[in-house]
TrEMBL record:
One of its GO terms (molecular function) is ATP binding. This is 3'-5' exonuclease DinG. One of its GO terms (cellular component) is cytosol. 3'-5' exonuclease. HAMAP family: DinG_exonucl. Pfam families: DEAD, Helicase_C_2, RNase_T. The lineage of its organism: Bacteria, Bacillati, Bacillota, Bacilli, Lactobacillales. It comes from Streptococcus phocae. ATP binds at residues 271-278.
């Protein structure tokens, strides 16, 4: 066997009767690579002398009859061995293929001793920003041909093309990055690191014009800004330059935006989803405000990234505008902390692989946003260690290239800034200049109400606090201080006991006694606890949540009054509030809740929905008449039937517990689906759903609004329950008190209309194009049985064709409608 492994590789894929130790080979595909060219290939079926499982037949398309005509492995072993004995063994998940083939050859008298290289791990290191590393996903993302997936020769050819692409990418990386990666490459499977070592011998030093080397970490230098191109004040010309189609409702929306520029009061523009609102405010505001910064705030980081990837990128590339996106510091890598982690020896293979990934990623990224690393949740603790804390020493070697600092500074000067509601509000709370004299657009503005509430809240880990207090009691101190701490521990322990054992909310007297004790604490002691009790007019409560394997209990505080955005904001040049839910009811509007008494209100005429049908399941039992398990079973049975429909199915839940119970039931029936949190983040599972990897998605709040499903021409959406707010929620109680103080009926004037608006927004997720069709199934029968149900029905029938019937009849009509 030759020692020159750098020139000859055998890329191998096997299909087998299973994935366990007793699996037998049923198909072999081999592709030989030399000098980064495919020079030979070999394929054969193998007779395993046992029937295939239905799963393997479905996965591979191979039949028992086909294999009955195939040779035994013993008949082809010599040919296979002689073809690959002097090659490097390359495979996607090499451990399985190499072990199975080596074992099969050994039983025939051939000992396979070739080095083994895994393309999964190479792809993970050198394509660090991908969501998945399956062969199918890599082929799609890297535009590699993969036909007849899960046949051995097709997979071997795709893996060979992937391997060549990896070789080329690795060789084109600078020597300094490869040297840094090699410090941790011993953690790669088998002899995979040999590929990096060989590439190092061919690599060149980095280009100092494009990158800078800081302690062995290569970072991109910023490109010089391009000269901005003139934007027209004519919206139609700008959309034509962007190759966008005209929409009548979008033109009406643009007119309201442009009229708002001449109005001093805030503009509230209500428009339903799917009309192109984002371009509708970005293009006119940028065209008419050539010197003023435009700041756009959206409710979630997912939507922020979506807008940046689509509309903002298109505008920036066409008009060469200085556009920027900013998030909180914890979203960015802190290079000082990453450098520290590089200097620490780790035996954990996954951590070392992340170090290699990040070294490659840092060579490529312009943002330093850790959200670009899609698989970081596999070891969240490591990323928690290297994320930015918002603090940076001026003496740091990374000071000039710190991603958070650069993002912070760029946010001050760019023409267009995209952020999210949480970051915007926290930033303005600390720095009014961030919003002063600028044009502000709040998209999905209804989310500001809850985000303002979150801003007013603070919490502390109750059990950790009790441990710290107990440790302080045991330290030498005055008798008075000791009694004071003992009193705080007693009150907090009693509160926790009442919460867990009796499920009751503590009375005002308990909090008053606790406040008095905390107020007497010496300066400098337990400052976080003292900050929680610094105001007299606050609400306090205890809550808990499951984190990994443990339940964490929190002591929470929030202001009793609803936060007023009008008084919160500094003086601005112009304010826009955009949403499909600005006008909540005749008595309540979003402007009222945000504290604006003077404003301009505009509304885009609603479009009819001939391509959407809404079905109300008359047979679905009420939650109040069922156990949790029985209700989940009813939902799952309906989803089982829907899984056989030829359209993707979106299932929306209001309860995480219920969603997971339904998902578990579907798993037991082997119904393929994606579930939020269980199978990934909302962002990652939506992308997988859009690509058609699975035809059913189960989701929570993130999928009720602000997320578009535009890829499928036909869709089914299942809404499991009406989206009412929890009446026991602290903020719901606060808002109810606020509305009552104004002489309004909280349920009829706010919570019922809001539930209807949320329901319509959910329905709108699956109607984003004129030629798109969708069927909506509402499983909550309260619209028929409750007194308020008629209000909901009247509102729905104004916009949609509504059917009240049993599930079987709905299935038949859905099938006719979508085909």
């Amino acid at each position: 066997m030759t020692n020159d492994f750098s020139r000859k590789y055998a890329v191998i894929d096997l299909e087998a009767t299973g994935s366990g130790a007793l699996a037998s080979i049923i198909q072999v595909g081999i592709v030989i690579i030399k000098d980064q060219e495919i020079v030979d290939s070999y394929q054969t079926d193998i007779n395993p002398h046992e029937p295939l499982s239905d799963h393997i037949k479905k996965l591979t398309g191979i039949t028992d009859h086909q294999l009955s005509q195939a040779p035994d492995f013993s008949q082809v072993a010599k040919t296979i061995y002689e073809l690959i004995e002097d090659c490097v063994f390359v495979a996607h998940n090499v451990k399985f293929d190499a072990n199975l083939l080596a074992e099969s050859l050994f039983f025939e008298g051939y000992e396979l001793l070739t080095p083994r290289v895994d393309t999964v791990e190479l792809a993970q290191v050198f394509y660090p920003s991908l969501e998945k590393y399956s062969l199918g996903h890599l082929s799609e993302q890297l535009q590699l041909e993969l036909s007849d997936a899960h046949t051995a020769i097709a997979d071997a050819k795709a893996t060979a093309k992937l391997f060549i692409k990896l070789l080329q990418k690795i060789e084109n990386l600078p020597r300094e990055t490869l040297e840094a990666v090699l410090c941790y490459s011993g953690s790669l499977l088998f002899e995979t690191e040999m590929i990096i070592r060989e590439a190092l011998s061919k690599s060149k030093p980095y280009n100092p014009q494009k990158h800078i080397n800081l302690n062995g970490i290569l970072l991109k230098k910023e490109k010089p800004a391009l000269k901005p191109r003139q934007m027209s004040t004519d919206f139609a010309i700008n959309t034509a330059l962007l190759s966008l189609d005209e929409r009548a409702s979008q033109k009406a929306f643009v007119q309201f935006v442009e009229e708002g520029l001449d109005q001093s009061e805030p503009s509230f523009i209500q428009a339903q989803a799917g009309i192109g609102k984002t371009y509708g405010y970005l293009l006119p505001l940028l065209a008419h405000n050539k010197q003023t910064q435009v700041v756009v705030s959206v409710p979630t980081k997912i939507l922020q990234d979506q807008i940046v990837a689509n509309e903002v990128t298109a505008i920036s590339e066409q008009f060469h505008l200085d556009c920027h996106s900013i998030k909180g510091p914890g979203n960015y890598i802190k290079l000082d902390l990453f450098q520290e982690s590089l200097n620490q020896k780790d035996d954990n293979r996954l951590i070392n692989r992340y170090k290699m990934q990040l070294l490659v990623w840092l060579f490529e990224t312009s943002t330093g946003d850790l959200d670009e690393i899609k698989q970081k949740q596999r070891f969240a603790a490591y990323f928690d260690h290297i994320k930015h804390d918002g603090v940076l020493e001026s003496t740091s070697i990374f000071y000039d290239y710190d991603f958070w600092r650069k993002s912070y500074e760029k946010a001050k000067t760019c023409r267009l800034l995209i952020t999210n509601h949480a970051y915007f509000l926290h930033r303005v709370q600390d720095d009014k200049a961030f919003a002063k004299n600028k044009v502000l657009v709040f998209d999905e503005a209804q989310k500001l109400v809850l985000q303002l509430e979150q801003l007013s809240r603070q919490h502390i880990d109750l059990m950790a606090l009790l441990r710290d207090l107990q440790q302080s009691i045991n330290k030498p101190q005055s008798l008075l201080e000791k009694r004071l701490l003992e009193g705080i521990v007693f009150e907090l322990s009693q509160l926790a006991s009442d919460y867990y054992q009796k499920g009751i909310r503590p009375n005002e007297g308990s909090w008053t006694r606790l406040k008095e004790h905390v107020k007497e604490l010496p300066d400098g002691d337990f400052t976080e606890l003292k900050r929680l009790f610094q105001h007299q007019d606050d609400d306090y409560w205890i809550s808990s949540e499951q984190q990994d394997e443990k339940r964490v209990t929190y002591l929470n505080v929030s202001r009793k009054s609803v936060t007023n955005l009008k008084t919160f904001l500094p003086e601005t040049l112009k304010l826009y509030f955009v949403s499909a839910t600005l006008h909540i009811s005749p008595q309540v509007s979003l402007a009222d809740l945000l504290g604006f008494d003077r404003f301009a209100y505009s509304e885009i005429d609603k479009q009819s929905h001939p391509n959407q049908l809404l079905f109300i399941d008359k047979e679905m039992p009420l939650v109040s008449d069922s156990t949790d398990q029985a209700y989940a079973q009813e939902i799952a049975e309906r989803l089982l039937r829907l899984s056989k429909q030829p359209a993707p199915v979106l299932v929306l839940f209001t309860s995480k517990k219920q969603m997971l119970m339904v998902s578990d039931q579907l798993d037991s029936w082997q119904v393929s689906h994606l579930t939020q949190e269980k199978n990934g983040t909302p962002y990652s599972i939506k992308k997988r759903f859009d690509r058609g990897e699975q035809s059913m998605l189960l989701g929570l709040g993130a999928f009720w609004e602000g997320v578009d499903f535009v890829h499928a021409d036909r869709m089914i959406a299942v809404i499991t329950r009406l989206p009412f707010d929890n009446p026991e929620d602290v903020f719901v109680k606060k808002l109810s008190s606020h509305l009552l103080s104004q002489g309004k009926n909280p349920f009829n004037d706010y919570f019922l209309p809001m539930a209807i608006l949320k329901l319509k927004q959910a329905i709108g997720r699956t109607m984003r194009r004129d030629n798109q069709k969708s069927a909506i199934i509402l499983l909550d029968r309260r619209v028929i049985t409750k007194s308020y149900g008629q209000v909901i029905l009247d509102s729905l029938t104004n916009d949609f064709t509504v059917y009240q019937q049993n599930f079987e009849d709905s299935l038949e009509k859905i099938n006719d409608f979508l085909t």
